[in-house]
Amino acid sequence: MQRFNSVTDYSFLPYEQVHDLQEKLLRKLIVYCKQHSPYYGRTLGDCPTNLKLEDIKTLPTTSKDDLAKHNQDFIAVPPNRIADICFTSGTTGIPCKITYTKRDLERLSYNDAVGFKAAGMTPDDVVLMTCTIDRCFIAGLAYYQGVVKLGAAAIRNGLNTMDSHAEIIKSTMPTAIVGVPSFIAKLGQFLAMNGIDGSCIKHIVCIGEALRTREMSLTPLGEVLENFWPGAVFSTYASSEIATSFTECEQRHGGHPPVDLAVVEILDEQGNPLPPGSVGEVTVTTLQVEGMPLIRFRTGDIGFQLPEPCPCGRHSLRLGPILGRKAQMLKVRGTTLFPNAFFHVLDDIPQVDNYYLEVTGDSLSDEIDLYVSLKEGTLESLRIQDKLYARNRIHARIHQVSQEQAQKKVFGTSRKPVRFFDLR
Ligand SMILES: [Zn+2]
After folding, report:
1. Measuring CA to CA, how many Å separate 40 from each of 73, 261, 266, 356?
2. Can you give the residue range of the structural domain that contains 410?
3. pLDDT tens for residues 95-129?
4. I need a labelling partner for 186 at 20 to 30 A (CA). Which of 34, 65, 256, 308 fits?
């Protein structure tokens, strides 16, 4: 198998070679899984080991539920080969274990080094890490190792205070930041308020929250970041299970997964592959994973593939923003949308204090009730219904509530704000 020694981006190979490389690695994966993964040993049955890449669609998909229910059976190495164990929240309420070998960790470093390089980062960069690398969080560790692998320098300040990050920016002038965009936006505000120059930062790699909409325009959060750091913001998408990250290239128009690490499909609800441009579930087959390889893993994240080839010259697909979780998908009279489509509109209205959404209904159509508290004005005077309709073409029932009531509901169950209540 390939070693992850260099930071070679195989996505620049001609299409036919990319196809052949993926097909070769897929066949290796099938052979490996049949031999080593108890789960796939059972479920792959008599699947041919000379499968064509196009025939990946004939393999069964793997759900989060499968992974949770048969967790131990997905581990494809003996215990003494496991180098790192992390946990995801899972679907059964019991944390789901994800295991990585030493080589899997090298694969992750390689993945993120390739991603950072695509985003224009070089060995000269000094990177402020504002994400945690412990707490069983693999992405933070992978990003850190990717920075080191690239040859750049990392400052692991993690989930530290604004003051502490600002102090580092003042004293060390980092050229890049990796972290959660809403936090980095707050950091931008903090720097501006305190008269600290943050213009040394030329690359911001954002994890976990979408910066662009279905139409690929910036979300309000993306705009805040873009105002502080024009041209610096790059999205990346990853999850513990798929052990693969998709980082935007200099075009900043969808993230590329390295072609030698994953085969990506977008599936409809019945599991059929959708063409580029159509919205469906991001489904990933991991290539070159040893610890816990996954075949056609349905991530539960809803997104789409950009239809055109990327002008950067990579022959890998581009994944657009994650529009929401499958579990939060709303279906209203034939239209599919996500709570964020409403929330982005409300985020843009300065008089809005707080909000939450309740969804009820049967399996055919959902009923949406939106509860909004205001700092001033009324729902009518602020034309909230019109603004929501203009963006989403859907009439939601909107109710004005007091600031206290909204606060109690949104922060009633957890320290993190909860704005989506599913009563279906
Ligand atoms: Zn590109």
Report:
1. 8, 19, 21, 42
2. 329-422
3. 899 999 999 999 999 999 999 999 999 999 999 99
4. 256
